[in-house]
Design brief:
Number of strands: 0
CATH architecture of the largest domain: Orthogonal Bundle
Number of domains: 2
Oligomer: single chain
CATH class of the largest domain: Mainly Alpha
Helix content: over 70%
CATH superfamily of the largest domain: MetI-like
């Protein structure tokens, strides 16, 4: 005996205790490619607008900070709250800088002074960085050599750089190499310690796996150790160029014919605070230009690294 329902099919479907689940993508209902492209395009547009909005906010805050800082400095000196003879004033700094640009300095054209200092700093930066990387990797790989030279390296690092600058001035005279040597000493230790620590921080399991796969010592250095230590090394380069500039300036203070350091010493000798600040502004511009180059070098060398959690860089 069979029992048949007297209800229409629609009623039976509505009263079914187990309704049919909604269809899924890929089960007879493929995703519309145009809709997916539209959603991804909207998401990319929102991200792009958010990035532009954040960049505009950052630039606005930077301009606000500079305006408040320089404005308060100018106002305090014009109202004689502080003596402009000792601290200078922004308008005087701009006037002094413009005079140097149009009429030149007492030592010659402004571009020549900046080029001399930049050349000394770049030469010292390159030599010091290469020596620091080589010795850092070498001592990081050879423990016996590191233990042997450890007290000598610590003693050399403890020597004041000004003393070494005086010694280099005696050895090399007023030539470029006296200032470059001071920059080399300042840069070397910064890069050396970072490279040394970067080699020591390489994952031991990664080294063991590479050896199991038959990697030679040279292949380990090229494909495992150096790439792992690059993050440490490139981080030190950002700091070390500033030290290279310091080394060049210290060397020019001790003895030079041209350079921004000699301009600062001359302005100091004539109690020209505006001239000192103007030369410091030139050094800041040189440092920013060099920092841009170091950042591009870093992005090229370690472009394989994963994206950072934040885009904030200093």
């Amino acid at each position: 005996m069979s029992v048949r329902s007297t209800l229409p099919p629609s009623s039976v479907a509505e009263e079914s205790p187990h309704p049919q689940p909604p269809p899924r993508a890929g089960e007879g209902n493929p995703i519309d490619p145009q809709a997916a492209d539209g959603n991804s395009g909207q998401l990319a547009g929102r991200r792009s607008r958010a990035v532009r909005r954040r960049r505009a906010i950052v630039y606005g805050l930077r301009l606000l900070f500079a305006f408040v800082w320089i404005g308060s400095w100018e106002l305090s000196t014009r109202l004689n709250w502080v003596d402009p003879f000792f601290v200078g004033m922004p308008s005087g700094v701009v006037q002094r800088l413009w005079t140097w640009i149009t009429d030149g300095t007492a030592l010659g054209p402004l571009w020549l002074q900046a080029a001399v200092t930049m050349e000394e700093a770049v030469v010292g930066f390159i030599i010091g960085s290469l020596l620091g990387i080589v010795f850092g990797i070498l001592l990081g790989r050879i423990e016996l050599l590191a233990e042997t030279l450890s007290p000598f390296i610590k003693a050399a690092n403890a020597i004041p750089r000004v003393v070494l600058g005086s010694l280099f001035a005696i050895m090399f005279g007023l030539s470029l190499w006296g200032k470059a040597a001071t920059a080399v000493v300042l840069v070397f230790f910064v890069v050396f310690f970072n490279a040394f620590q970067g080699v020591r921080e390489v994952d031991r399991d990664l080294l063991a796996n590479a050896r199991i796969l038959g990697a030679s010592p040279g292949q380990l250095n090229r494909h495992v150790i150096l790439p792992s230590a690059l993050s440490w090394i490139t981080a030190s380069l950002h700091t070390s160029f500033g030290f290279a500039l310091v080394g060049a300036i210290v060397g020019e203070y001790l003895g030079a014919r041209k350079g921004v350091g000699l301009m600062i010493a001359t302005a100091q000798g004539t109690f020209n605070a505006n001239g000192v600040y103007a030369a410091m502004l030139i050094l800041a511009i040189l440092a920013i230009v060099a920092e841009t180059g170091v950042t591009r070098l870093e992005n090229y060398l370690i472009r394989w690294r994963p994206n950072a959690i934040t885009d904030v860089t200093i």
